[in-house]
């Protein structure tokens, strides 16, 4: 709002003419006040006092006077009827605010770096780090309390001092990278030569831990099954060659499929014992499930598929069956051997289920031990299939009708298909990463919520990684008061009070808050480590804990 000076005490109230701007029109209210052209203008301030300004501030003073009178509702024509009330002085509180710092995208002044990274990434020597500032920090590992770190800015400055320029540092990095690649190539070549040497002269090293896995637990069950099923396949094959029975052929194929699948299980057990590496940080425990899944597919393709094929061929083109005496003897021996292997698998599963506090059925359905489950189901199917084959062959001997023998082959194939479908389903569920039991998840949740430092937890996930290994993840809302109190309990309160009393300026206040703020954050990290350690100690199945701070 801008008022122009008028020659006399004439007032104008109402609306000015419309002012056009492009295609829009604006009608502005005007309150032209009597203003005398003189060298000085009196202006009323907010506290009612008068102030004289020079002629150079005439327009500004008139503008302020117009605003003041317009806000109080004064009208020049009705000045005698309505009096303006005196204004109260305005009190303004000035708030001291720290100047906001602008941090660039490559801000590394307060970043820490370990000595190993400093030597590897900046091509320095250990003697170069001796001259830098050393800082003790809380260790993220359970086995060490504190470790030494360096400021990244100091390390960068030292590297430039040693190498002279960023270009020289980049050349040195490239040279070391090429040397590392060459070293790895030589290492692979030497390992290959060592392997060939061992193959030629024999390996005289003591038995490794991987080999001992096949003398106890699931490994023992698998090795016993391999030996027995291999012998069964050999004798059943001889019986089929001698008799030409379709049921005996199905039994021979069944034993061959069991032998191959259990050899695959043994490979999965040996691979699952490998230690984690950078490419597989959570280990290779899922190799057992992968081997069991492939085994289920192999049973379906080799066992069920060939049995169905041979049974259908027998129905379409029946042929007389020779003497079945030797076939009955071999089936009886197979029944005894398969039954022995089945008992070994049942005893192992009972022992493992009792240790986990589960029933036999729950342990099998949840596929806690895929290798033993495969042996159990394969041997159970083998015992049933022997019974089916013997029954159908007996009916063929009594009636002389070869169709019964072909029907027996179809029955064995159906039984194998059912077992393979169950194995594929359970192992697929395990590989997808299913959740743990609700009761176990509730215990973990209650353990966290009962801790005083935890205010609430959200988005809780607990995944069964296989072989009694659980990965737990939760978003935790920590109580800042409890964390701060935990920090204060470790401090000298009198000394802290003296530090507070010495704070006089904003710079000293900022330094005080930054110092203790960083220590409180370290205390929060220590609380997170403590919670993770408690979860692992009270629940041995929990191997990996990820607590995210809200």
Account of the 3D structure:
With 550 residues, the protein is mostly helical. The chain has three domains: 96 residues, Nucleotide Excision Repair Protein XPA (XPA-MBD), B Chain A; 223 residues, Up-down Bundle (Alpha-lytic protease prodomain-like), CATH 1.20.1510.10; 112 residues, Alpha-Beta Plaits (2-Layer Sandwich). It is 59% helix and 11% strand. The strands form five sheets. A three-stranded antiparallel sheet has the order 7-9-8. It has a three-stranded mixed sheet with strand order 10-11-12. Strand 5 and strand 6 form a beta hairpin. The protein starts with 11 loop residues before the first strand and ends with a strand.
Element order: H for helix, E for strand: EEEEEEHEHHEEHHHHHHHHHHHEEHHHE
The averaged pLDDT comes out at 76
Strand content: 5-15%
Q: CATH H-level name of the largest domain... which superfamily?
A: Cation efflux protein transmembrane domain
Tell me the Rg in angstroms: 43 Å
Shape call: elongated
Number of strands: 12
Which CATH top level class of the largest domain fits?
Mainly Alpha
Structural class by sheet pairing and helices: mainly alpha
Alpha carbon gap, first and last residue: 51 Å
Count, helices:
17
Outline the biggest β-sheet: 3 strands, antiparallel
**What is the fold-level CATH name, i.e. the topology of the largest domain?**
Alpha-lytic protease prodomain-like
Strand numbers in spatial order across the main sheet: 7-9-8
Proportion of helical residues: 55-70%
